[in-house]
Amino acid sequence: MIETVDLTKKYGEFVAVNHLNLHVKSGEIYGFLGPNGAGKTTTIRMLTGLLQPTSGKVFIDGINMEEEPIKAKARIGLIPDTPSVYPKLTGNEFLNFIAAIYEIPPEESVHKVKEILEMLELSHKADELIETYSHGMKQKIVIAAALLHDPSVLILDEPTVGLDPKSAKLIKDLLRVYASRGKTVFMSTHILEIAERMCDRVGIINHGTLIAEGTIEELRRRVGEGEGTLEDLFLKLTGGEDTKDLLKFLED
Amino acid sequence: MKKEFYIAKALILSRLNSIAKKKKYRKFLIPSILAIIAVVFYFIQKFAIYLFGLRLGFLPNLPLYLLNLAVLAMLIFLFLGSITTILSVFYLSNDITLLLSMPVSGKKVFAGRFLYVIAEDSVYTLVLVFPFFTAFGIMNRLGILYFLLSFLFCIVLPVLPAVFAFLVVMPLANRVSSERLQNITMVISVLLGMAVYFVTQIANPAYGLFKNNHLTGIGTKLLLISKFFPSWAAAEFSAKFLQGSVLAGSGIALLFIGANVLLFYLAYALASKYYIKGLFNARRTERVVVKRKWIVKPGQSPIRALINKDLKMLMRDTKVKVLLFSNLAYLAFFAVAFGFMPSKSTQSGSFSSIVFLIMMYVIVDYFLCGQNTLINLFIDRESIWVILTSPLKSAVFYWSKFIPPFSLGIIVNLLLLVLSLILMGVKASYASIISLPVVIAMPFIFTVTALFIGFQFTNFHTPKDPRKLISGRVVLVLAVVYFVYILIFGIGIPILLSFIAKFKGISFTFLVSLIIFAIVSFGGGFPLVMLSIKKYEGLQITE
Lengths: 252, 543
Ligand SMILES: Nc1ncnc2c1ncn2[C@@H]1O[C@H](COP(=O)(O)OP(=O)(O)O)[C@@H](O)[C@H]1O
Ligand SMILES: [Mg+2]
What we know:
The complex is a heterodimer. By secondary structure, chain A is α/β, with parallel strands linked by helices.
């Protein structure tokens, strides 16, 4: 469960995230949708304790991030937007390192690491340095690290960027299974199709403000009588109508 | 030569931009650099005039010796840095591939980059060495021609070290990959540093200044060799001007300048043939084979896992290996060259031994616990999110960064202690007792200071230039702090202690030394630890 109360982040005068009130239930896949620069990454950094909010609160499974950061962080698995991980460790070493700092018991961690590497099809690369991995493989090793300690809240920042279709499908299935086990999945994306296909509920953020929230069906209804697509709604809400002019210009 | 200049210009501009990162500071950059240069130049010239004016009975032409020495010191400095500079500018720089995909020939890339190296090094020569020439010229009222020729002399001075380094690196680059190339050049440059230092120490005219009577047959011969050093040309052409033979003086200066220009063309000719070939070869990456035995054992405590990870990353990082290896090699070398060799001639009594021993610990710990701590800290910078989102206690992270450099410092200090007892005998035993608190306190103080300063700059995002491990600001602040530390702990306190030892005896001095270092460690060190841990708790990722 993720809850935010009037979460706000200002960079000087600029308000990157504005009085955000989120409520993500357990067992739910929540899509955090917004154009580039909307404030998605900033929000995720505040949720995971990487950035201190200017004001407002974050609760992870009811634990206040500000007051008990260690307890809260133990429940989170993060997959950040850029998979920068220790280049001079091997995949295997990196996962064992994660197991140690999350204090996973050794008898558990041994087969878990093996299992996860196999599931993500990284076993053949496990003993090679991460710097030799491709972008997609780096992303997979980060996913493996996030899943290793079986967090109750999984937070992903634009997870499918850079993954091949097969891996993307794997991630989708994985998230489904994860949510069905009663865990919380929070995923930011600017790709509508992903939100539409995977998420139980969607929040749309623009200029740091949450401008619409609900299930896909609810949002559809708001567009009116089913004629428009989610894309039309998204563009309308986020002021992306201008792109239509651009398309027109290109076509002419 | 048009494209060459464009390449050099682009490099110089990007260099300037990297100094002033914010756009609004850029317009002040060149004026302020010029102002700093002018001030430094003025003071060095003043200093040189003062030195030249000294009357030393046993050395009639002191100015010429000093001029020679200034040029020689600069050459050592240039030689020491030359191989790494050439390697990074010519072979490992990121934009090389881009340049090669453009319609520019390889030798033009070479020439552009070479001009850039010379331009940058010439700035140093003009600031640090040229004032000695101007001082000489002003004092002896030499004509404008002298100033002009010595100006050109300073500009071409970096050519020899650069060409030399290029001629060393280029054949290597044609054979081995970049990873190995870095390892080999690192060894070469350290050996070269030692060799250059050694030869110059023997052939250094300054040596003759004090120990002329000590020179053996070999020494005299080596002194003759010093005439072949470029620094000799400086003294020689200045001497000719002084004697009034302008023609001979100009001849020597022009010969020197011409020889350097020729040297450049030699490198240019070779580059057009071999540079590009080696470039492609050196940029091919080599697969690192990971040995099985390095794999972490599951079930480690977080702090052990952290230390384990750091050590592994350090061991596998060529850049770090370069730094560590050269640190250690220089350390060993200087310990012998400066320390134990002259210590034979130090007079009896504990006075000089105390100063010498404590200073040695301070300098050694500066390398081991000051510099290495930061390298070890910033090895996490790209992946700091892993640590910051994990349920690690800040103190655990802190101590994991503290333990390795601190232990290394203690171990090396203890080894040095034993070594100094063996080499210096009884003379050192009193000094050793008195410096015992330093053996433990100094690694502690250097390590916590480095960590404190490192934590103040939460500059943990990915560095733009992969070769830069530590951000420039941190290095700058640390340089100032460490300079003060060396003054206080390496010079001030040891001199104080040796005075006390002279009048009050060993046990009292030991007590004083213990109290001083206990106060510094507990009063200064522990607050820094607390502040650093606090700072870590508030660490954020902002970029
Ligand atoms: N450190 C920072 N300083 C100033 N502005 C920032 C900083 N980080 C992000 N921003 C601004 O905040 C806004 C939101 O950024 P971000 O959360 O990264 O967007 P996205 O939704 O694409 O992930 C952007 O306009 C960005 O320019
Ligand atoms: Mg983002």
